[in-house]
Structure formats: structure tokens, C-alpha cells
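Dear support,

I submitted the protein below through the web form. The confirmation email said the job was done, but the results page showed an empty box. After a refresh the structure appeared. I'm attaching both so you can tell me whether what I see now is the final result or a partial one.
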Amino acid sequence: MKRKGESQFLPSGPLFDPPLARTTDPDTSHQAGKALFESSRMASLQGKLVRMAERFPGRTARELQARYRGEGELWKRVNECVDKRLIYRGQSRRCRITGHMAATLWAVEK
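What the results page shows now:
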């Protein structure tokens, strides 16, 4: 069943934890990623992003970030949440924040 705004680009592979830093990043980036993961801050931000996508469906990542009043960069957690099938990307449209074309985000119905 196709959901409103659904894209044909839903993930189809196994669920996995994404890398915490690029292989070309310096050691300090890997250390920071590990600290973020171990502190459970990453999971907390992912949960907040999912709740924002539920509350404001069809918004871009930057639009959700603009509405979020907490600390942290939710938009950096989008790929992780898509990979875990917590949210999905819908059709692209012009973002009201950046003015660029961007995918809309939708929470996966439970």
C-alpha cells in the first residue's frame, strides 16, 4: 500500500547501524561519533526527529529543524532514521527554509 507522499525509494535492505564517521575523517571525528552513540544522545535525537515527522508530516528536514526548539541537529539524523525505517522520504519540493529542492519526510505508520 502506498502512503501519502511516499517515494519509490524506501529502503529494502537489512537494518543496520550507519557508520559514525566517514572512513576519510580524522580520528577525532570517529571519537566524537562513538561518544555520541555511547551517550544515547543519537537515539534521543532520532526519536525526536520521528516525533517531529509525526507531528508535522510532509516537511523537509530543515523545516523540522526550524520548528525544533531543543538542542541538537535533528537534520543530521535523517539518513539513520530512514535506514531504520522509522521515517521515509516522500516527494521533493522547494524547502521554505533553504529555498532548495528537498525531500519531504513522513513517519512510518506503526
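Response: this is the final, complete result; the empty box was a page-load delay. Residues 27-107 form one domain.
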